[in-house]
Amino acid sequence: MAAETETAAGGRGLLRSLVRSEQSRLAAAVLLAVAAVACQLVPYLMAYRVAVELVSEATPDGDALIRYAVIALVAIAAGTALMGGALAISHISAYRLLHRLRQRIAERLGVLPLGEVTRRGSGGVGKLAMEDVERIEVFIAHMLPDAVAALTVVAATTVWLFVIDWRLALAAVAVVPLAMLGMRWATRGSGAWVAQWHGAGMAMNQAVTEFLHGIKAVKVFNRQTDTVARATDAVRRYVDAETQWGRAFLPGGAAYFTVMAANAAVVVPVGLLLYRDGAVDLPTLLLFLLLSLGYTAPLTKLTGYGSQLRQVRFGTDEIAKLLDTPELPDTGRRLPLGQPAVELTDVSFAYHPDRDVLTGVSIKAEAGRVTAIVGPSGSGKTTVARLVSRFFDVSAGSVRVGGVDVREMAVDQLMDTVAVVFQDPFLFHDTVRANLTLGRPDLDDEAVQRAARAARCHDFILALPQGYDTVVGERGATLSGGERQRLSIARALLKDAPVVVLDEATASTDPENELWIQEAVANLAAGRTLLVIAHRLTTVRDADQIVVMSDGRVVETGRHDELLATGGTYAGLWADATTSARWSLGVSGDRSGAHA
Q1: Of 512 and 73, which is predicted with more confidence?
Q2: Distance CA 174, CA 186 (A)
Q3: SS3 348
Q4: What's the mean pLDDT in 95-121?
Q5: Can you list the alpha helix ranges (DSSP code H) found in 112-142?
């Protein structure tokens, strides 16, 4: 609850909470940084003392000059050591904070509705968790100690200059207000530029991630030109956003840096006039000339941090939004369940408030039977699967599993009760055995192999270089799509959930793998309630019940023969599917010369 309150104020509140959690270490880092920057002023003071000695004394004291030189060298060494210590402490704090923040992001992703996570895309979430979090390291480890130290030393130096001579001090600081006007010009509308740049960066990450994940399909279907063009276009938009921001900053920024570097052009003539009139002595003039060369450097550094801080703030705003996204409500109650039937009653749902995807949908999948949901693309069948798995909560109506509303039971109880086999199964960069036992890592080899045989994947696993100990590569890259699908079915068998949802498990497989997968699915269905989201109608013709959807509504329900006899939507879909199959076979025959 405290963390939620902290993030409610957006990125600023999140940054404050992060700093507070490490305030003792960061305070030590700031103090060391202030001392380090103060040490950098000592050589200027020693130069002033040397000038006084050379000008005021007829015979300069050689020992004093050596002493001043030694003090300057010691101050330089001490300043370097102190700054090193400050940065070491601030980096330790920063990495501790980054570790905790990434943990918070991961934990939040774990309790958010899965649909909300998929909506953001892996590229968008990756940018938040990696790139935007990494920018906070720059803020904590560098900007915070440097900025506080620079402000402290600039303030102290300004007071010192005015104590020595207020007229030369005015000359030294006169350029600062003028330079700030240039910076204000440079940063006008910067909020909009940062938003555009950040949005382009997230789009670029998403496009490149999608391209890399789909590289095999891109090559197989010879779509390199299109996909590379999309990724390139996203990169170009990011470059354009950054370039336009840079061009908008350039005139005012150039004016700022030019004026800030020109304070010597004010101090020198003013100082010479005062020296000519006897208003200041030579050592004082030399001191101001020395200080004027370095007085504005900390301010220039602070200004550079200001631009980075806007980027950090925008990124932390997005992180705060993620952390503030309402989690999936969880009652935590493990309730007694009846027979593992799945029932949707008058369900309506919308991904966006102005457009319903489902309207008044009622479906009952009987316990221990196979229920198939079919329909044209966009009919809402996949959304039904997502609601049963509680990727989202319904807008109206109810979804019940085992007679209990899925919103009433504990989330982990629902996950124990329902297993999902996705169209594009995800495998980790780990061994076959580790991927199979993801839900139940305590299973022995005999149970694993029994499930693999039932899922028709035991033989190809044994043919792998290290059998069940073979590492399958990132996202299962070393396996075919059909092999990955059969492994996911074996994983569902090992989970031993009474309800299984198959989301178009054979939609993108070849005929040989489709046969293996159908046999695996048949074994998976034994004694379980199976809800099949089907693209290929031939795979569900023997289902106990076929539910036909169109435009977000249930339009027909029945068995295959019954639906064909009615001559409705299903009959039309079946006619299209069988006509397509005959056309494909005819093409194949022509190419093989079978008709000759």
Answers
A1: 73
A2: 20
A3: strand
A4: 78
A5: 114-126, 133-138
